[in-house]
Amino acid sequence: MAVLAQDELRLDAAAVDYVLLALYFAFVLGIGYLARRSVSTSLDFFLSGRSLPAWVTGLAFIAANLGAIEIIGMSANGAQYGMPTMHYFWVGAIPAMLFLGIVMMPFYYGSKVRSVPEFMLRRFGKAAHLVNGISFALAQLLIAGVNLFLLASIVNVLLGWPLWASVIIAALIVLTYTGLGGLSAAIYNEVLQFFVIVAALLPLTIVGLITVGGWDGLVDKVTAQAGAQQLSAWPGSELTGFTSNILSVFGIVFGLGFVLAFGYWTTNFVEVQRAMASKSMSAAQRTPIIGAFPKLLIPFIVVIPGMIAAVSVQEMVAFKQTGQGNVDYNDAILLLMRDLLPNGILGIALAGLLASFMAGMAANLSSFNTVFTYDIWQAYIVKDRPDEYYLNMGRWVTVGATAAAIGTAFIASGYSNLMNYLQTLFSLFNAPLFATFILGMFWKRMTPTAGWLGLVLGTLASLTVFLLAETGVLDLPGQGASFVGAGAAFVVDIAVSVVVSLVTRPKPAGELVGLVYSLTPKERLKASTTGEDAGWYRRPGVLAGIALALTIALNIVFG
Predict the structure, then answer these.
(1) Does any domain span residue 59?
(2) At what angle do helices 418-429 and 448-470 cross, to 10 degrees?
(3) Rounded alpha-carbon distances, angstroms, from residue 88 to 175, 265, 376, 463, 555
């Protein structure tokens, strides 16, 4: 994306655009300052004192994910693959989000753990806890680098600053409000950023569709330039890299829809942390379910602009047809903004892009500092200190994580489609963790030894697939290597866990109450239906059913 710093591609921002950006940054930093006044304990800093309403945590839940993965990554996928990109939302997100709300959150919230690795500690012991803590921390630094690189790229395009300077400035802005107010600052900014992002991308989508002659015009142009297969979500062979339609559908449903999606949404503390900040069990369950409704509609303002750019922006059309040029798929949405948006609206769009990247990076930082402080530093390095020590440590950890993200930002710069990079990370870190979680939650016989050994060998299985694909031993174009790697991690983890569990000693049943489904009294898993949680529209099961019905309908309409 550094090529966009060239003068001929620079966005033509005017004074009004800079004023809008300045106002946005003033709001962001102001929220951080105000949130700092409510932080007096480590629980306030890391989990907002478990005091936030469901609508706030629900919007923050989805905004935390509405970073580089959604805006640049999914628009790049839309430009490259077309409608099959919808699978990342309607197959690869919604079902897993609903499962998290209905099945997983009662265990997370009910056990009062402070993080996902802490749940691993209670279920499997110290070895699995440490493995999970380290792998999660590493993943967050790598993903924070993606968001930071893209945030810096926008600053680079807008102001023409060198990329390294843009990276540092962008990092300092996010560090300031996250370090001041902790999770509360991140969450309230994520709610603000959600509305800014929608206000930025909706006009871009509408103007883009008008430019290409409406939906019918887009269909005609995509058919002529890329083929009709990019207008149908199924079977998605170009996305998966499989020539067989049956294997492609299986890869999407099992690799993406089950292993990668459930691995990401149900065990990723970046998302779970928002739900754990809720004020009640019902609110915690509703958090991902509320987030599912905007998640259903986000592809229309992210994927569609990518498709429009691929058939209407001259440089992108040439790149897609020849693979040559000074742009790549990651540039799709920026190029569309450059060509279509007038000043003023351009400022809002730029604020929306900056908001998305800042939301993503802040989510990575706020979850990293919680896991590192509680699950690594407090658990294994410096124990039994006063709470104020860990509160201050959390702020210093945020500074260190920001510095590390500056380094990992340059790893991300080497990928022409960042979704390929991100899906690889998810297959390495999330897929084996999901296998361990789901087996351990529903099989009381699974042992602590199986917990950590399954994680390690599952991760190695995914890494092996990645290396074989990178070296050409396996021919897996597109994002097929990630789907196969995730499947390999899941299968190996399950197999190893079962075999090891049968030859090692499990924990006593009394220690697994609240951690294993069959051993937990059902009343402990039920949410309140009175007081602030009263009303059918606040019942997690009803909301989840509505969201699932809408998801099925969208898959049928655009399949």
Answers:
(1) no
(2) 150
(3) 29, 12, 32, 22, 12
Please name every residue paired with 278 in a beta bridge, in sequence order, or none if there are none: 52
With respect to residue 49, please indicate whether it lies within any of the assigned structural domains.
no
pLDDT digits (tens, 9 = 90+) for 295-344: 998 889 989 998 998 888 888 888 887 777 777 787 888 888 878 877 67
Q: Among all chains, which residue has been given the structure tokens 């996928």?
A: 77
Residue type, 242: F
Beta bridge partners of 52: 278
255, 261, 268, 330: which is closest to 482 by C-alpha?
Answer: 255
CA 525 to each of CA 53, 281, 290, 334, 548: distance values in angstroms, whole numbers, following the listed order: 19, 9, 19, 46, 21
Domain count, the chain: 1
| Dist. CA 450–CA 240, nearest whole Å | 31
pLDDT at res. 5:
40
Q: How many CB atoms lie within 10 A of CB 414?
A: 9
Count CB neighbours of 228 within 10 A. Answer: 11
Residue carrying structure tokens 């300092």: 172
Q: Report the alpha-carbon distance of residue 215 to residue 440 in Å, rounded.
A: 47
The whole model's pTM is what? Answer: 0.77
Residue 181's Cα: distance from chain center in Å? Answer: 22
Q: Is the pLDDT of residue 523 over 70?
A: yes
Helix (H, G, I), strand (E, B) or coil at 52: strand
The CATH number of the domain where 279 resides is what?
Answer: 1.20.1730.10
The C-alpha angle 134, 139, 142, rounded to 5 degrees, equals 130
Going by C-beta distance under 8 Å and a sequence separation of 6 or more, which residues neighbour residue 541? 102
- Name the 3-class secondary structure at 352: helix
* Torsion 512-517-518-522 (CA) sign: positive
Instruction: For CA atoms 61, 545, 50, 121, give the dihedral sign.
Output: negative
CA distance 67 to 362: 10
Domain that holds residue 240: 15-31+65-558
Q: Which amino acid is residue 476, in one-letter code? A: L
> Residue 18, exposed/middle/buried by CB under 10 A (0-12, 13-18, 19+)?
middle
Give how far Cα 3 sits from Cα of 70, 72, 503, Å.
Answer: 21, 15, 56
DSSP letters of 173-229? HHHHHHHHHHHHHHHHHHHHHHHHHHHHHHHHHHHHHHHTTHHHHHHHHHHHHT-GG
Residue 549 lies in a domain: yes
Q: 1 lies in a domain?
A: no
Q: Please tell me the distance from the alpha carbon of residue 156 to that of residue 352, in angstroms, as a whole number.
A: 16
